[in-house]
Specification:
Length: 508
């Protein structure tokens, strides 16, 4: 499989195909013509001595410092060295690959003034598996992701570290073993490589891809819990959703009815009770609101992965170079914060359903903590603790990073986005929510097995079978953490959603 980079049509699905499934990245025919045109403009204006930010001037507060022509190339190298000040653990390989792919895709637009060899080198690194070691922390999310992108560039110029064939080595060694020549940066190229939002966008894009699976998994697992508690399905009637008008709510209600179709556990209004608690009755409204938020995030990220986020930008048609603010991460920062909040709420309501399942005052006749011999057995008491701990931590993590700003560069950069922090927090929230949903999946299956067997819904029965293929009914207390990892893994790798969709058709 090949993914064509043309600077305009890259999707999150395409990106993930390259970063996680190692599809080959290629640039479209003719794309280098505009790249070369913009490079010619840079060379022309440098030769004329026209002042241009970051090309023949210093950076940030040093923007008024003129750089002699014989030091212009050195300026670009020094920029990379100075900005490679990252802190913390290395970013995951898929995120690093995403940064490379998106940077190449942005440069292909032909507004950045780099030579074609720069883009060709990046794409070779992706396809041959040279992955720069990039510390996860150090970006404030404005003037681009300067720090992480500088670490991305280091192996290109024979410095830093990179992972190749599963081994971390020097950047120069990795490039040599992969057969990729290193480059010598020319005017504008160092700045063009690091003045962008590709770190925060890559983290958010991969988190978004994971969220799209979680949205469906949350509906499936919520439906299984609802079934085990004899949910009143009238609350999911399409007419109720239509008069609220929100599309996300309509999708979730439709999913719930499809998943529960044919179930003998569900009830109608007034059969066992008049109303269900909100964590069951309002699944369409709550899950649906998260879907609306994720739709917004998707629109931002799909635009950003095809955006020109460099500064200054080169307009070859008019032979002009302008400084602007496309490097500012605020659009992605707010989207990343929104994603974290949206997914956090899926975990929040999931934990409330777990609590309902284990509480004999609320679970409609099921044994306390979903275990037959309570007292000698704690049952599902402590997994709910773990879920509560993760949900509580998510509430802290969901505090928006984008509302914070600390000025940098002696006040020249007086508002920054902190978008990369928000993106990393969203990814952590997603990991937590997968575990919470996995605990709910286990709890709901346990609740089904503690009742007289009846016909289950088509979709919920398949979810139950998938869970039971990995995790057995809990007769007596046992170690839970391995089961929790297995259950979360069924969500993370998409196998739960894939299995259910084979039975029910593609869920909304």
């Amino acid at each position: 499989m090949e993914v064509i980079l043309d600077g305009r049509n890259l999707t999150v699905e395409d990106l993930v195909a390259v970063t996680r499934r190692h599809a080959k990245a290629v640039f479209c025919a003719g794309s280098m013509e505009n790249v070369q045109k913009s490079r010619d403009i840079v060379d022309k204006l440098v030769a004329e001595g026209r002042p241009m930010y970051g090309i023949n001037t210093g950076f940030g507060k040093f923007s008024d410092v003129a750089i002699p022509e014989n030091e212009i190339d050195l300026l670009q190298i020094n920029l990379i060295l100075a900005d490679a000040a990252g802190v913390g653990n290395p970013l995951p390989q898929d995120v690093v690959r995403g940064m490379l792919v998106m940077r190449a895709n942005s440069l292909i637009n032909g507004y950045s003034g780099v030579r074609p060899v720069i883009i060709e080198t990046i794409i070779e690194m992706v396809n041959k598996g040279v992955h720069p070691v990039i510390p996860e922390k150090g970006s404030v999310g404005s003037s681009g992701d300067l720090c992480p992108l500088a670490h991305m560039v280091l192996p290109m110029i024979g410095l830093g570290e990179a992972e190749y064939m599963g081994t971390v080595m020097t950047g120069s060694e990795a490039m040599l073993k992969a057969g990729i020549p290193t480059v010598v940066l020319k005017a504008k190229e160092g700045l063009a490589l690091i003045n962008g939002t590709q770190c925060m966008t890559s983290v958010t894009a991969h988190a978004l891809a994971d969220t799209r699976t979680i949205l469906k998994a949350a509906d499936i697992i919520g439906a299984l819990t609802a079934e085990s508690l004899h949910v009143i399905t009238n609350a999911y009637d399409a007419r109720i959703q239509d008069i609220r008008r929100h599309q996300g709510q309509k999708y979730v209600a439709s999913n719930m009815l499809r998943l529960l179709e044919g179930s003998e556990y569900t009830t109608a209004q007034g059969e066992e009770r008049m109303q269900d608690s909100y964590s069951l009755r309002c699944i369409p409204q709550i899950h649906g609101a998260s879907r609306l938020a994720v739709d917004y995030v998707s629109s931002v990220i799909e635009n950003e992965i095809n955006a020109v986020t460099d500064n200054p930008v080169v307009f070859s048609e008019t032979c002009e170079v302008f400084s602007g603010g496309n490097f500012h991460g605020q659009p992605v920062a707010i989207a990343a914060d929104t994603l974290g909040i949206a997914v956090s709420e899926l975990g929040n309501i999931s934990e409330r359903r777990i609590a309902k399942l284990i509480d004999p005052a609320l679970n409609h006749g099921l044994p306390a903590f979903l275990v037959k011999n309570g007292g000698i057995n704690c049952g599902y008491m402590i997994p709910q603790y773990a879920a509560a701990a993760l949900v509580s931590e998510n509430k802290i993590l969901a505090h928006p990073s984008s509302v914070d700003s600390i000025p940098t560069s002696a006040g020249q950069e007086d508002h920054v986005s902190m978008g990369t922090i928000g993106a990393r927090k969203a990814a952590t929230i997603i990991s937590h929510v997968r575990t919470v949903l996995g605990i709910e999946l286990m709890s709901a299956a346990q609740a089904i097995d503690l009742q007289t067997k009846k016909k289950m819904g088509a979709g919920t029965h398949e979810a139950y079978k998938i869970l039971r293929s990995k995790i057995n009914f809990m007769e007596n207390d046992r170690i839970f953490y391995k089961d929790q990892k297995l259950a979360a893994g069924l969500i993370a790798d998409g196998s739960l959603v894939d299995a259910v969709e084979k039975i029910t058709g593609i869920l909304s």
